[in-house]
Structures are given as C-alpha cells and as structure tokens.
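Worked Example 4.2. Consider the chain below.
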Amino acid sequence: MSTWIWILIILAGCLLSTLIAAWRMAKRDREKVSFLMDALEDGETNFRFRENSAINRELNRLRGILDRKNTRNEALSWNKLFRVITHEIMNTVTPIAALSDALAKDDRLDVKAGLATISDSSNELIRFVESYRSFAKSVPPVCKTLMVSELLEKVTRLHHSSVQEHGAELNMEVRTPDLLIYADEGQLLHVFNNLIKNALEANATTIDIVAELDSEDHTIIRICNNGKPVPMHVREEIFVPFYTTKPSGNGIGLSLSRRIMNAHNGDLKLVQSDDRQTVFAMVFA
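Applying the procedure from the previous section yields the following structure tokens:
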C-alpha cells in the first residue's frame, strides 16, 4: 500500500476522531444548557459548573446574572409588601392611639362615640389581618384535565346575573378547538371571579373571554373589558399583596389570583390597559 494511501487513512482517522470529539462536546454542552434551564425553571440557582471551559464560564455567568436579578426582584417585592403592610397598620393604629389619648385627657369628649370609633378601627385592623392570613394559607391546586370551552361556559353561567345587573354583557370564544388544560377548576373560578368583578367595578359594559394556543403552544386565556383603564402609576403595584386603591378593598384579589396561576406553573399578566380596553392574560405554560 502506497505512502499516500496511508497518509489519507491517517488524515481520515484524525478527522473522524475530531468530529466524534466535537459531537461529544456538543452533546455535553446541550446537556449542561438543558440542566441550567431545568434548574432555573425550578427556581434553583445554587449550583456552579466546575470545569474551566468557555461554555461553563458563560453558563455560570448567566446563572449569576439571573440569580442576582431574582434576588433584586424578591427584595423589591418584599419591600413593597412591607411598605403596604406598614401603611395599612399605621393608618389604623395611629387614630386609635390619638383618640385613646384624647379621651383619657379631655372629659368633654363623648366617650361612647370615641369608643365606637376605636371599635370600628380595631375591626378594620382585624379584617386586614384576616386577609393576610387568608393570603398566606393558600393551598396547592388539585388538578384534573379540563375542557376550556366547558370551563368558560361555567364562568358565563355563574356571572350571567351579576353582569346583567350592571348593564353589561359577557362573551366567550375558544379559538383553538378541543383546548385542554390541567388545572384546579375551583381555583381558576376564583381567578375569573376576581377579574370579572374588577371589570364591573371599572364600569365595563363588555367583557370578552378569549382562549387559544399561542405560537409556543401555551394556552392563553384573555379577559378583556372596556372599563376604565388601570392608572399608569399603579400598574407596577396591582399584584403586590394588600395594595389597593379601593376604599373597601383588601388588596389580595389580584395578588392571590397571580399566586394561583403561579401554582399552576403559569402566570397572570396585565398586557394592555388604555382607553380602548384592559386585557389580563392567564398563561398556562
């Protein structure tokens, strides 16, 4: 066999070895990326790729960026929650303290009326604490397969009377045939109840519920209404527990609704709010 043939065989072997090594490296890199995505999806960032390679350094850098972002977002959420709780408690306790002090010092004040005011304020504080306990005790969903069309038909039946009483109309449309979700029906009905109630309180005359699959095969249910838009300055706050702009609201409706959707591995988003319509989207991943 000539020398050139041996050279070609050796070169072919080297090329084949290189291709196999590259394939194995690409396979390991895909596995690392898949591991990273699974970990981030589960909320786990307490890991680090040890091998000192370019892909590992970049994956570790990405993990660090996302971890710091999650930490900042969590801290921001807790700060908002503490601010709202402090505001609510101080608004209730301060008048009680001031009135109690005044009743103790001034015999001319109407003690009975003062005690009635203190009682009302105390009951309001108890109501707030009960709301907090209700929010904190949310239970995990008990899921089953649900036909979206049947779920939305139940929603329209449940709210038919209340919507008519407000002089409004409620419509539903399922754009993807035989659309199914795996969810807790009772908890989802709570989310629909809250969004429809909010729409009616915003003086909506038309509420449309539209369900379909998006381009990534996620089930999206949009609740659209033509009521007053959500003010721009509160859009970042509406999902914060106990934040409310309503005199009689407890501020847990939207925050609990988002928490329910998060427990279903989904999300609740405000995707649009202007003079034309307000749209909330229930996203099922």
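The chain has a mean pLDDT of 78. The radius of gyration is 28 Å. Compare this with Example 4.1 before moving on.
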